[in-house]
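Predict structure. Chain length: 205.
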Amino acid sequence: MPIMPLTALPRPLILGSTSAYRRELLQRLHLPFEAVPPEVDETPRPHELPATLALRLSLTKAHEVAARHPEAVVIGSDQVADLDGQPLGKPGTAERARAQLRQMSGRRVVFHTGVAVVCRATGFERAVLVPVTVRFRPLSEAEIAAYLSIEQPYDCAGSAKVEGLGIALLQSVESDDPTALVGLPLIRTCELLRAAGVPVLGSAA
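Prediction complete.
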């Protein structure tokens, strides 16, 4: 069933992302939007810290889509897992996912989720970074194999879907924005949209 918007928007709203997880999260706000794939090279720069990478890619994605849709309010987002200062991206394959989970077993990992909102027509640009601290349980080879056979999280940074069976891999999650770990921090997104003049629950900044 399609989501019915609570209100008409003064400008088109675009999510600059190919992520099904971010689309599902943004739908929770009951705002009409279009998803447009950003054409961005996501390769980390030499010695670039995970938090810096997540924030840079969020802004770059928003600006790239906004350049093609200058009248729209564009949301860009990116997430990078940080293990002792080293970025962990999307594994892409079962073997890489297995290697990531072995690395994170019994460890503390910070998932940096950036979100940016850009509108070329008004000159609005703002971005924030939301860290989520995750502690993984010590994982056995059997647990890792069982998890990957069921969920196959090869498109998720850090190889674990916390909204699914991946929650069973974890010891704790610490964040002040509960959807950040899934891919889009909705509390911060609402703040940025209101600042950009988008009426969330019928009231804009």
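Summary: Helices lie at 20-27, 50-68, 94-104, 141-151, 186-195.
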